[in-house]
Amino acid sequence: MAKDSKRTVLVTGGAGFIGSHTLVELINAGFEVVAVDNFSNSDDTCLKGVEQIVGRKIPFENIDCCDYEAMEKLFQSYEFDSVIHFAAFKAVGESVEMPLKYYRNNITSFLNVLELMQKYNRSNIVFSSSATVYGETDVLPVTEQTPRMPAISSYGNTKQICEDILRDTVASSKIRGIALRYFNPIGAHPSALIGELPRGVPNNLVPFITQTASGVRECLSVFGNDYPTPDGSCIRDYIDVVDLAKAHVSAISRMVEDKNKQNYEIFNVGTGKGTSVLELVSMFEKVNNLKLNYKIAPRRQGDVVAIYADTTLANVELGWKAERSLEDTLASAWKWEQYIRSKK
Ligand code: WQD
Questions:
Q1: How do the domains of the chain map onto residue ranges?
Q2: Distance 203 CA to ligand 1 centre (A)
């Protein structure tokens, strides 16, 4: 494998929210990148934003990772030794309504990537997993040893299944893998040139908040204030997307530099701090000096009461820690929303 291929990374889903931010941080860290995306849940806005931020073209192929032939051509055309696999559908509610769409897409795409890595002797993969694999747990904060409960959505089940596929593939091949279990990714790059671009009505809290603040949405519904938490609303671990992107660079570097202790490793990527929905809403109002129109609505099916991470393993082993304050993250989310609205 040519030397530079050791420092070249294929980023699937590279036009997406976390994928685009990770392209920036990989390049900042001196890696070369190749991005693929089928634009099923994104467009070229963030890719263009990445190019403006890093000041150069990003090698990009408009490919569906479920298309084995197209992906094989990619492996034959580019010399990358590592992969970061983001490409997947991620809407929890939609996955409950259309499970087959999620099982086919999320699992087939991952199988294609792994099979081609084996066939073309590519070494390292970071898999985009999720805290949703823990399900409803009453032991908080969750560590990587916290048992995974049965998934409460097909989306979450695809993440559990793909973690197991990665574990078994690593055990029977030369591939090394790291699964990063994200908590709740939010925010945007400080440049406001890339950020979250949900299609249609946002499922997630922060894009719904920013779209309510910009008038795109009439009113935010807070799904329940009668939970057994201090203010009655659900608690989550909101992790800044730039911090999350940097965790991917740390994970890839760990394997490229042969510092991994096992060939399959799992890391929680969060802040270690729980924030409730109502706390986050009031922080958003305060930081951005605005009043948000919201109402208390019935609980949303499938929501866990509270979940936040024990991040010790990532802090110690990856040498990574979330750095951005929630205030700065919420300010960046609003700056991005205003930028996007100004372009409409
Ligand atoms: C957070 C909190 C809602 C919207 C999911 C996936 C996870 C990851 C992130 C993909 C909850 C409340 C939300 C709204 C609200 N996957 N909320 N009003 O459900 O914790 O995690 O998305 O990216 O794997 O499981 O994130 O942002 O949807 O909800 O009150 O309009 O905000 O009830 O308590 P969630 P979320």
A1: 3-186+239-270
A2: 7
